[in-house]
Amino acid sequence: MASTDKLSPRDRLLDAAARLSYRDGVSVGIEALCREAGVSKRSMYQFFDSKDAMLAASLEQRVPGYDAQLAHPDPRSASPRERVLHVFGRLERASVSADYHGCPYLAVLVELKNPEHPASIVARTVKERLAETFRAEAERGGARDPELLARQLVLVFDGASARAGAGVERLDDGLATKTVTALLDAAGME
């Protein structure tokens, strides 16, 4: 990432929204966001209609990085099973970081509880895309019921992410990948 002094005021706002909403929750105030970004409230409203719009844009901007984190480094040579397990291995590695607070998209959905909120729409789209990725991998891997397996995998991903993010579960012992391996085996996925 470029140093913050070279970023535009809009990008500084988006970065501040990403950092603060992830660390402190989506209820972080506009004043704190503007102070963190070094941008006036007046300027913020020139770029965004509302804090809600800024939060949604911030989440949208982070999607490529989120996707890249979960993508297998060599998807062509990896089997569907390896690609699924890679996602959970990445989750386990991320979860041991001191600043890990869970999946940012799940956190937004849980905190906002409003399916029509612009940030909820972005977050739900990301989570639906993850489920679709799992479903497609399950189908390619020969799972008996790809739709059911995809739902189970999202449940494990979100549950493990939330528990690790809340500090009530450690994933550094491979708990998520062991759980997923059992699901893949039970589903008959190669």
From TrEMBL:
DNA-binding region extent: 29-48
PROSITE patterns per UniProt: HTH_TETR_2
GO MF, one annotated term: DNA binding
Keywords: DNA-binding, Transcription, Transcription regulation
Keyword Protease: no
Pfam families given in the database record: TetR_N (PF00440)
Domain annotation HTH tetR-type: ranges: 7-66
InterPro entries listed in its UniProt record: Homeodomain-like_sf, HTH_TetR, Tet_transcr_reg_TetR-rel_C_sf
Protein name: TetR family transcriptional regulator
Gene source species: Streptomyces alanosinicus
Source taxonomy: Bacteria, Bacillati, Actinomycetota, Actinomycetes, Kitasatosporales
